[in-house]
Amino acid sequence: MFTEEKQLYIAHCDNGPLYLVGKMANRHGLIAGATGTGKTVTLQVIAESFSQAGVPCFMADMKGDLSGISQAGKMSGFIEKRCPEFGIENPQFHGCPTRFFDVFGEQGHPLRATISDMGPQLLARLLGLNDTQTGVLNIVFKIADDRGLLLIDMKDLRLMLDYVAKNAKEFTTTYGNISAVSVGAIQRALLALETEGADKFFGEPAFNVFDFLQTEGGQGIMNVLAADKLMLNPKLYSTFLLWLLSELYTQLPEVGDLELPKLVFFFDEAHMLFKDTSKALVDKIEQVIRLVRSKGVGVYFVTQSPDDIPEAIAGQLGNRVLHGLRAYTPKEQKAVRAAAQTFRTNPSFNMENAILELGTGEALVSFLDEKGAPSIVERAKILFPLSQIGAITDEQRQSLIRQSRLYGTYEKIFDRESAYEVLVAEQQQAEKRAQKEAEEEAKRKEKEAKEKEKAKASKTSSKKKSTTRKAVEKTINTTATTFGRQLGKSIFRSILGGIFK
Hints:
The chain has 501 residues and is of the alpha/beta class. The chain has helices at residues 39-52, 77-86, 115-127, 131-147, 154-166, 168-175, 180-195, 234-251, 271-274, 279-292, 311-314, 330-340, 351-357, 394-403, 419-500, and strands spanning 2-3, 7-13, 16-21, 29-32, 57-61, 98-102, 109-110, 215-216, 219-220, 222-226, 263-268, 297-303, 319-322, 362-366, 378-382. It folds into 2 domains: 2-112 and 207-403, P-loop containing nucleotide triphosphate hydrolases (Rossmann fold); 115-198.
């Protein structure tokens, strides 16, 4: 519920309403609690309050429950009982303008990114690469940038990896060592990711984050990501949401502190973001969280335990709602004590005991006041949503998708010239050149062979002529000699005959 003073009525305690101050909403927040304690309903209450104030939100829907935010709620015995406690008469049930998105394009508008937009650091996390493999991936991106090759989808990256591997000797001096083993490992990781359907996430048209920052009828649009299938790949889910957050940080202009944020980003199952994440990437996340508030974006982490969030990031979460925790093991008991210490103490109750005693829909609540200081923690009951609690039907979902102003914008896939097309063209040209050179070489060799054959034939002919000439000359000489002898004898006999006569 939104008041004219730009405050959001979120919960009620013994001392009265608890408000989330609008101009402090971009100081981020935390919604924590064990399974079944009411985190999803709290998220829905806060989100629809922002929507009523004209602030759009983004949230991931794990089980389909949050799709009900698009429909008006209705009176129930539980709500009727709570109305007097909250000082609410005749609640006006209503839904929020809602758009549905889906990485796989099945339950909402497709959400895609290009390989270049994702970048090597996030992609390395998604592929589970080690430091050496990540270094090679960075080199591949650098070579693509230097050559002006666009990396849009997975086939671009696969062929780029193949190209770099085949020309590794050429690139090693300039860019560093390129191991064939590392390239092979990256190729295998890409193949595994593709078999899980993640290849649908990479391509064009890439999503424009400004499409999240829209209102309808004065209300902020609820951008709901269908995440039930996406959750089967936790690393893809968390990397994808981190990419969205990074895009908001990169593309939005600086606006400073506003009366209300431009967008509120709910990061559900936040523990997945930090699991198996390198310190370098955690530092990067901490920096994005710290700076994105100046872009008018509030980030609210939703998780099962406050200690799921690294301390450097948890320290930036000023608005806190903590539902009940379970403490069956020493580790869980330690987590409860640590959670109690994150609040500004209220002397009227024991916080550690309260955390263990909270019922469904109850929470410890502490919001920042107008000066940015944490308020004293209160044990409170969260308001009920004015929108529907629970999932909508497939027919309702499809109807809302078709009615959306974005319908058709991201559904039409296109594939412009990128690294794949350029490298394939170069390869074809190289093959043509090689074929032409081979043909020319064959012709040259054939010509040489003919010339050799001709020369050989000519030599053979000359030899034959020489032999024949010699034979003729010999015959002539022999004949001449014989004739000469016979002529001589004849003359001699004639002379002798004349004498004797």
